[in-house]
Predict the 3D structure of the following.
Amino acid sequence: MSRISKNASDAAALAKGLRQVGKLGKGKKTAPVPSRQAGMRARALATPVAPSPDCGSGPGFEMEASNDETMADRAYKQIEELIVTLQLAPGAVLSEQALAQRLDFGRTPIREALQRLAREGLVVILARRGILVSEINLRTQLRLLEVRRVVERLMARVACERALPADRQAFASIAEGMRKAAKQNDDMAFMRLDRAFNLLVSQTAHNEFATRSMGLMHGLSRRFWYQHYKEVADLPLSAKLHADVAEAIARQDGGEAAKASDRLLDYIEDFARKTLDK
């Protein structure tokens, strides 16, 4: 099978899973998200993440773990979600052994996952003091947004140029799922779709330098939004702005994708500044 055919097959699998977002509703369990494998399109996907008691119903993708996903990848994904959704609070002291027992992994994949999270700024590893969940800093977030605006605009435009038909279908499915999550006020479903969207943009753009840059920012940004959105943000508006970008990429409208990305970052920056005023 050619590389293009393989990529199309992978993205089609992602799209099929994401279409099940339409099954959002009562009685659905919170579901996994696509795995994070830089450089491959929508290769994906998910092992269950330990849900919080108040997750509500999540998107209904039921997808098998990718053969390319390592135990460390799976541990990373679960710990990252616990941190981003504040189940592991800023300043919390982490133990490899405790995390291994909680998530049912060996200590080696937990250690590798924590090293990756440290590179992304979500944990701090201190010699002779242990491992801490990093604090949330507003001014750091504003500096991050300066870079994020430029990189995301570029990636949205390039993704339009390089998207395969199956990628476009996956973007459309993500947009639909975000709008449905907003209607149901399901923040966890939206958070997971946002992560899936970020992953798909990075994989479709095929620019490893932009992908590395965004990998350092998205977890910090999602955690900041999750901490404050109930105070100063609007989930339906956030979901709409994200969905607008996804739909523009699905249409391969590069100009509109860049404009939609700027509107999204305008909202995120305004949101960050409102928290400063509180």
Remarks:
- DSSP finds eleven helices and three strands in the chain.
- Confidence is low (pLDDT under 50) at residues 1-8, 19-65.
- Residues 245 and 260 are 5 Å apart (CA to CA).
